[in-house]
Amino acid sequence: MCPRNLRYTMQRKIVLADDGLPRQWYNILPDLPKPLPPPIDPQTRAPGPGLLPRLFTNEQLRQEMSSERWITIPEEVRNALTLWRPTPLIRAVRLEKALKTPAKIYYKYEGVSPPGSHKPNTAVAQAYYAAQEGVERLTTETGAGQWGSSLAFAGALFGVKVTVYMVRSSYDQKPYRRILMHTWGAEVLPSPSERTSFGRKVLSQEPNNPGSLGIAISEAIEDALNSENTKYSIGSVANHVLLHQTVQGLEAKAQLEMLDEYPDIVAGCVGGGSSFSGLFWPFYYDKISKKAPKDVKFVGTEPSACPTMTRGVYTYDFGDTARLTPMLPMYTLGSDFIPPPIHAGGLRYHGDAPTLCLLLREGYIEPRAYNQVEVFEAATIFARTEGLIPAPEPSHTIKYVIDEALRCKRTGESKTILFNLCGHGHFDLQAYQEFFEGKLPAWEYPEEAIKKSIEKLEKEFSWIKDLPFLK
Ligand SMILES: Cc1ncc(COP(=O)(O)O)c(C=O)c1O
Predict the structure, then answer these.
(1) How far is it, in rounded angstroms, from Cα 391 to Cα 432?
(2) What letter does residue 326 receive in the DSSP assignment?
(3) How remote is the CA of residue 123 from the centroid of ligand 1, in Å?
(4) Which residues contact 408 (CB under 8 A, 6 or more apart)?
(5) Is residue 269 lining ligand 1, measured as CB closer than 6 Å?
(6) Are strands 137-142 and 230-232 parallel, antiparallel or unpaired?
(7) Residue 274: CB within 6 Å of ligand 1?
(8) pLDDT block averages, 10 residues each, the chain of length 471
(9) Atom 1 of ligand 1 has which residue's CA nearest to it?
(10) 462 alpha carbon – ligand 1 mean position (Å)
């Protein structure tokens, strides 16, 4: 993949030259252990894409359903990606030493992108396709502000206007992310907002509603459907988004190869599943095509306040609260469940990507859930050893990695762990401050709220259990 003379290797940090950026994305659809259950149109109760063809650009839609294993990355997109890619793979030597662990810990650092996370890997592709197809404006939602700022940045690169519906709790907690989006020229509205009929309905019932990703998605979709020459852009969950993220895993594989290393464990946090999938899919491909030299394990981490993988129900649910998307097969907490306002805003989503959920159900993924206090304890250990201040989302994975490294210390195993440090926390310092002041609530599993939301779903759509696709 990368010619030897373009490689530059150090023990601590493995860097690829620009030419090491992959030329193709990996698409998992042809390699899933079972066919992916189709989206269901709730009106007809039959498979169908619902409104998706009106929402997405043609190329997004084509990739969403593509059965090609490798999809060529357009040169203009590669060109934009080389602003910050390939990203470094870093060995956490100082963390290993502090923990006195025989485990080797590597992290793929995605915080070097201009918005500070993995999210622009797909944003630049989506903005490029929109510009190619003559779309004037893209609408979207954002939780922590990482995705919104990534699309704002990508829109600026390709001359496409961007409107972002930002979950109200993050809008209030993270004013600087908002300013970042303005700087790149985007319009930002707190969600629920007065701009859409769905936002107005939510506000009339609960004026202080903190918002959720489900509500913000509904508003962004409604705006796109009711506006001329406007499409909807999505930051996670959809298959085409996850495959755009595979540049991470493909680069990481090449970087580890340079050290003659292969991971025993690949770990990442899960909001909708894009950063984790982007890292582990290429290793999954090795595994199922019997090319992996080891029996690699995949571990997904999540907040115990929004525990989709560990406590969700595998069924069909809507991707958004207003039920504008088709119903998707996933582990869900119910699309009207509003998670507690934890600081990992990007992990406050009621479901996960259908591909990830299928792999979880088939036993390919081990899920782990943590509360935000233990997560910030782990983030602080990382910051004080490795120096980088991690975003709250990947800090869930850091918590897992530290626990696993300490387990290795007890057993004497020298496992190789690869994880995704998918964003920096420079705009999350308010959360760090609350943690240091002891004011951060250790929100736990909101059992009653989830139960209510799932019961409502099961009652209203009782026919779902009779569909053949989930069996
Ligand atoms: C830094 C960061 N990590 C992770 C996520 C979760 O999303 P995903 O699971 O799609 O990577 C987000 C979402 O906004 C994020 O901003």
Answers:
(1) 10
(2) P
(3) 13
(4) 101, 102, 103, 414, 415
(5) yes
(6) parallel
(7) yes
(8) 48 92 98 96 90 94 96 98 98 97 98 98 98 98 92 98 94 89 97 97 95 91 97 96 98 96 98 97 98 97 96 93 92 90 86 97 98 97 98 98 98 98 95 96 88 91 88 78
(9) 423
(10) 32
